[in-house]
Amino acid sequence: MDPRLLSAQSVDSVDALYSFIQADPCILQRFDVLPFIHTPLHEASFTGNIDLAMELMILQPSFAKKLNEDGLSPLHLAVENHKVELAQELIKFDPNLVRIRGRGGTTPLHLVAEKGDADLLTKFLFVCPESIRDANVNGETALHIMVKNDRHEELEVLRGWMQRMLISDALSTEKHILNTRDRDGNTALHLAAYKNDSKALKELLECMSLNRNIQNKSGMTALDLLRAKGSHMNIKETEKIIKDSGGKTRDSVTTVSTMSEFLKTPVSFREHCSTGLARYKSNMADGTRNALLVITALIITAIYQTAVQPEDDQDFIKDNDVVTKIVLLWGFNTIAYFLAMALTFLLIPFGGTYTWWFICITLPLDCSYVVSTYMKYKLGRHVIPITLIYMYVIVILGFFLGLLVFYVRWRRTTRKNGPEPKSELISEGFKTVV
Q1: Residue 431 reports pLDDT greater than 50
Q2: Taking a C-beta distance cutoff of 8 angstroms, is the pair 392, 372 a contact?
Q3: How remote is the C-alpha of 207 from its chain's centroid?
Q4: If I label 102, which of 54, 68, 91, 398 is the partner at 20 to 30 A Cα–Cα?
Q5: Nearest-5° angle of CA 409, CA 410, CA 413?
């Protein structure tokens, strides 16, 4: 039997389906031969026949990802025809069905954003949060589509979901969604400003990750677009909303160079340090990093404990014990302590948040260690030996010396005058004598 005949016939029950299977056991497999075909699952999704759709999902799961001649999957048809319950059942089998790209790169999530259904949108976002990053052939995400179609309720749901999501890359996902530009370089904020949609603007501007002054391909910010396209409308209220949130015109925004122009500029010392640090961290295996973190934590704990532990005979330190106890013992202890702190900094995950937390936690701890060591060894009622101060000065100078060496190495790699040509050309492991 021709599978196209089966899809065109009225298979309105599970019993009818199995009657066709009894006549031709391979009838369902023949659908997979054709790349685009209206399968019985498409028909069940179109009509909202949940029982038949679920039976087909069990018998032939590949139907769920197949597109018909119109470039639509079964989930597309369920959403387009408002078969909400069936759509929810389909994504229970496979949440990734939300990301299937149909005609024009449209996903079922895009259709929900266009047709409007806050509850179904919520289901899609929770079962497949990655789908919010998908864009159609015009570069439009679900956020763009909501603004274009005045879906304010769905926009409110999406805004609330973005601000509350707890996935691993939640912050980067939120920034990506809010600042993604379509083919013309317009973000959702540009589209809302173009339409003078104050309600959509308020929802978008509540998000801290939104770039208020991003420019489209014409070099226009949202405020520029509002003024240019809204001359025949009352834009005073909308303009005030954008300005109060930090929106500016392109003339007020610092000119941003393109990525190609940025890559042409010389590497600064700060970039050299951050890049080297990031490469060092990325080249280290997770097991090695975890083991070293445990070791450094034990070293820091042991040294700090000896610093704060009271010294019973500190009032009877003799002059000849100063060098032995303070300069040598605490000199080496201090060097080991700060080296362990430095290694811990290198081992923590790369990122501004981790760096600042590490600084905020360790800075008071370092001060406490220095003060504890400084106050621990005093000669009776005399002031702290000047040798202890010298010890810390040497440690600080050692740190700056290492930084200077790193800086000199950077300068040597970035100097304009290159090294003299060598007498040998080495390429792909082969040597050619010149």
Answers
A1: no
A2: no
A3: 16
A4: 54
A5: 90
DSSP letters for 41-93: HHHHHHHT-HHHHHHHHHH-GGGGG-B-TTS--HHHHHHHTT-HHHHHHHHHH
Percent of the chain with pLDDT over 90: 27
4: pLDDT strictly greater than 80: no
- Three-state DSSP at 218 gives coil
> What pTM value is reported for the model?
0.69
Long-range contacts of 378-382 (CB under 8 A, 24+ apart): 378/314, 379/315, 379/317, 380/315
Separation in Å, CA 347 to CA 83, 240, 285, 287, 369: 52, 47, 11, 11, 22
**Residue 73: which of 52, 90, 49, 50 has the closest Cα?**
90
pLDDT of residue 306: 77
* C-beta separation of 158 from 146 below 8 A: yes
Query: What is the Cα–Cα distance from 291 to 296, expressed in whole angstroms?
Result: 9
Name all contacts of 168-177 with Cβ < 8 Å and 24+ positions apart. Answer: 171/209, 173/129, 173/132, 173/133, 174/207, 174/209, 175/209, 176/133, 177/132, 177/133, 177/141, 177/143
Cβ atoms of 66 and 98 within 8 Å: the answer is no
Terminal CA-to-CA distance of the chain, rounded, Å? Answer: 75
Q: Which domains does the chain have, with CATH numbers?
A: 3-213 (1.25.40.20), 269-414 (no CATH)
- Which residues have CB under 8 Å from 300's CB, separation 6+? 337, 340, 341, 344
